[in-house]
Amino acid sequence: MAYLLEHKDGIVTFTINREEKRNAVNDEVMDGLQEAITYVEQNNDVRFLVVTGAGEKSFCSGGDLSVFHALETEDEAFGMLSKMANILYKLATLPVPTIALINGTAVGGGCEIATACDFRLMASHAKAGFIQGTLAITSGWGGGTYLFERGLRHDRALKMLVDAKAYDAQVLYDIGWAMRVFEGTKRGALADFIEDMRKIHPSVHQAYKEIELRKWRERNMYERVMEEVRTCARLWESEAHHQAVNSFLTKSKK
Ligand SMILES: CC[C@@H](C(=O)O)C(=O)SCCNC(=O)CCNC(=O)[C@H](O)C(C)(C)COP(=O)(O)OP(=O)(O)OC[C@H]1O[C@@H](n2cnc3c(N)ncnc32)[C@H](O)[C@@H]1OP(=O)(O)O
Q: What cellular-component terms does GO give this entry (predicted)?
């Protein structure tokens, strides 16, 4: 199974379960994340949604290039990108707090998933970055748009995007992208992080999230996310992008 879904003590945990592919996202993972979101929407006893990856090496390495390299044109790319962008928009606008429990490398779309969550807790050995630029594309699942809304200084957010490289956890904490850097188990880090929040009535959490979401609606977040998708789709069909993906896939096979 490409993902695991668990509901325990009010916490729904969605785990991308493709360690051998560094938890890359394929259609099954996308559908699983949608399933997790629908479950949270329909069950009032869910207090938190946690997204994480199996193992210790990777949180998520972004879109599965071995599958999505088959998408050649702008229209083909738009189909895949907008599917995940819509799912991440639902994740980002859930009424319960969402937590990216970053157990290992989070790059490309993996960094976008983490940015769509309210909070990012990072293992000290983990790295994260919007490395899409190395593939001659921009972020395409809405992550760039969320990044500019996450309260980081504008120059730091922009630098993350244009550097297109993975940063250490401590750097990401220093610039305000990661809220905590943890040693030890992710279960322990999560329990510690939600200890105070747990004591607060869920209606209060929902009310605060609604304040933030009202601001997002006023700022046309959904339309901006879809514009990001279109931009990425346009770059996707370039020769530079297809060459960069081929070069990654060929290197992997050696
Ligand atoms: C499509 C949407 C777009 C977006 O909108 O954001 C994207 O997400 S683009 C995808 C961006 N992601 C990448 O470019 C990441 C590529 N992967 C890596 O850079 C590295 O694999 C890693 C994540 C830094 C991990 O490095 P390492 O620990 O050294 O592992 P390997 O490189 O040896 O990988 C092991 C295994 O996994 C396969 N793999 C890794 N990432 C992907 C991926 N994104 N898609 C498909 N397959 C992936 C890799 O090919 C290896 O496979 P084998 O050679 O068969 O063992």
A: cytosol
Token pair 């907008």 in the structure block, residue:
82
pTM of the model: 0.98
- Evaluate whether residue 36 is within a structural domain: yes
Ligand 1 centroid – CA 48 distance (Å) = 28
Atom of ligand 1 nearest to the CA of 66: 46
Structure tokens given for 254: 């050696």
CATH of the domain at 119: 3.90.226.10
Percent with pLDDT over 70 in the chain? 99
User: Is ligand 1 within 6 A of the CB of residue 228?
Assistant: no
Assembly ipTM: 0.98
Instruction: With CA atoms as reference, report the closest residue to 180 among 99, 113, 249.
Output: 99
Antiparallel, parallel or unpaired: β 127-129 and 167-168: antiparallel
Residue 233 lies in a domain: no
